[in-house]
Specification:
The structure is a single chain. With about 140 residues, the protein is an all-alpha fold. The protein has one domain. It contains two helices and no strands. Helix 1 runs antiparallel to helix 2.
């Protein structure tokens, strides 16, 4: 083997080692990013649990509101036949309170809808980006 061949092989080996070092740096950087992403995903999971609790609470508020509304409607029906002026004034006040609560629930519902739609859209987009890819490592014998 001539010295030119030795020089060419050494140069080729240096280029390969340099590229290997770049790849190792890339992988180390990606591993750091994966660790940060894992921590972020943990935060997201905790926030998701909080959002789920808020949805359960909102659902219960809707059920409670419906029960109050039904009670109010029954009271209106019974007052129609035998109510006094005082009873009518109390039911009018109850009606205004129910109306106010309904408006507050409507606002809460719209906020939850907007938040939910935004979060679900973001998660769908994230999943599109993170479809697993396979890296195949070949071993030469």
């Amino acid at each position: 083997m001539s010295s030119l061949d030795d020089i060419a092989m050494r140069r080729a080996n240096r280029e390969v080692r340099y590229e290997d070092e770049l790849w190792a740096q890339d992988v180390a950087h990606w591993q750091e990013e994966h660790e940060r992403a894992a921590a972020w995903l943990n935060d997201v999971q905790m926030a998701w649990a909080d959002a789920e609790a808020a949805l359960r609470s909102h659902a219960q508020n809707i059920r409670d509101h419906e029960m109050r509304l039904r009670g109010h409607e029954r009271a209106i029906g019974s007052q129609w036949w035998d109510g006094t002026e005082t009873e009518h004034a109390r039911m009018t006040a109850d009606h205004e309170e129910l109306k106010s609560r309904h408006l507050l629930m409507q606002e809460a519902h719209q906020r939850l809808r907007k938040q939910h739609e935004g979060v679900v859209t973001e998660i769908r987009e994230l999943l599109k980006l993170t479809v697993p890819t396979t890296v195949v490592t070949e071993t030469l014998a």
